Amino acid sequence: MLLEVNELRVSYGNIKALHGLDFQIDEGEIVCIIGANGAGKSTTLKAISRMVPVEAGTKMTFQGKDLLQYQPDKVVSKLGISHVPEGRRLFENLTVTENLMLATFARRDREQIALDIKRVFSIFPRLEERQTQKSGTLSGGEQQMLAVGRAYMSGRKVMLLDEPSMGLAPLLMMSMFEALKEINSQGTTILLVEQNARLALQFASRGYVLENGHMVLEGPSKELLENPDVKKAYLGG
Amino acid sequence: MVFFQNLINALQWGSFYALIALGYSMVYSILMLFNFAHGDIFMVGAYIGFGVSTALVSLAAMGAFALPGWLILVLTIIISMFLTSFVGMIVERVGYRPLRDAPRASAAITGLMIGIILETGNLALLGAERVKFPSLIETTTYDLGGVFVTNKKIMIVLVSITLSFALHQFIRRTRWGMAMRAMAFDFAVVPLMGVPLNRMAALTFALGSALAAAAGILFGVAYPVLDPYMGILIGWKAFVAAILGGRGSVVGATLAGFLLGFIEMFVPMIFPSTLRDFIAYTIVLLILVFRPHGFFGEAYSARLRL
Ligand SMILES: Nc1ncnc2c1ncn2[C@@H]1O[C@H](COP(=O)(O)OP(=O)(O)OP(=O)(O)O)[C@@H](O)[C@H]1O
Ligand SMILES: [Mg+2]
Description:
The complex is a heterodimer.
Chain A: E1 3-12, E2 15-25, E3 30-35, H1 41-48, E4 59-62, E5 65-66, H2 72-77, E6 81-84, H3 96-102, H4 110-123, H5 125-129, H6 140-154, E7 158-162, H7 170-185, E8 189-194, H8 197-203, E9 206-211, E10 214-220, H9 221-226, H10 228-234
Chain B: H1 2-31, H2 38-61, H3 69-96, H4 104-126, E1 131-132, E2 141-144, E3 147-150, H5 151-173, H6 175-186, H7 197-222, E4 225-226, H8 230-245, H9 250-270, H10 276-290
Antiparallel strand pairs in B: 1-4, 2-3
The structure holds adenosine-5'-triphosphate and magnesium ion (MG).
Residues 41-42, 86, 162 of chain A line the site of magnesium ion.
């Protein structure tokens, strides 16, 4: 078991967002969490990357280590869990290369960094052409590529992806998921959060369904795609 | 003649404003707070400089080493910048870090409180008597065709320009500088890059405080009598320069510091000098009406959370 989460509870003030989630991810898997607006998908990812405080009783272990002992930056730099946040959140005042380099802030393996940058550019050739451009001036699709590339640079045992399909034209969306498959095939475990349930379930091998802060269903993607409740609620009938 | 004489004085005052403004500007852009204790950190820096130089001078007098005055001054600046950076880091750790998610007004009030603590702490420690910064270098006056320039003024301007250039390079070229620029744009995402926020906050305060200490010592060289309230007015003016320069801009804060020096020196050439500050700051306000984000304010994401 790579990542194991038990009784994950998160509140924002008085609002309870997550009511005790249990889930786990194996090494090398692609897993997705689907759910409607406000179900708590982003909150789940933020809890793993320690960007929101969790309530007492929550247990999260990563490779047998207690995740709660790690500061957010150490989750990235020591455990290799990277997070592509909702809405990309690039540093628009920095260039493409600077965004990628910043993600290596805590790394000291210069040679490997250079190789990794090459690798990002081979996965997303568009980024190489735009190296010295300020990331705020990239197109939406290019920005999404950079957001994924940046996460790849920061740590890649696990990648947490928050709606990577958002705002992408269908063709770009497909090539984005191709790229993610390629990254996964090199050994990166992926936890994906999506509103676009069909896309997510086609891409992932397993899925969880989140409703109002509760995990209501889980199973192999094939089963979820056939499940009448899932069909009705998330796949348009 | 009078014009050039004023120009030289303006450059000297601009140097003080610029160095102090840099600390305000960095902390504001990176941590979204105005460190209203910063003027008092300038004061503490001047006093630490006083302590360090006095100690070095008396050690030299006792024959521990023989150093020329200018070298003692250089050592004083370096050692005091180093020591004052710890004052800044303590202020951040104790005063501001616990308030990082609190309303910004709490941080502002805390800043004012820290300022008062530093002022009264100084009074308690050293008493009400004013101290005098030791004279480390002889004043040499050059007569440039009726305009008088002293070696001290030249030194002050050169040191301040050098330091602000060094800071500019640091922010442009190092990975810490890159992280600072990223924080200025979107603070909340920076930890996801593996950047330790607390260490960056400490670094920011350390750099700003070190520059304020340099300003304090240069001030002590020009105006040797120090008092615990010396940082208040100059701190507010530097704050204005930081706003005028634009959020997080080193070049902006430096230029605005000098501009403020110029306005203050040249207004009395035209208007009665009792109206100096009134008119000087009216000009500043007018500039801000037309450039509300200052000269070089960079864009930033308004999102405070992930
Ligand atoms: N910073 C916050 N303060 C208060 N409430 C919040 C905050 N962030 C999220 N919430 C609430 O927590 C719940 C879960 O939000 P979350 O962002 O995790 O949903 P989501 O599943 O990612 O939704 P979407 O598909 O729209 O992105 C929502 O009800 C939301 O209003
Ligand atoms: Mg979301």
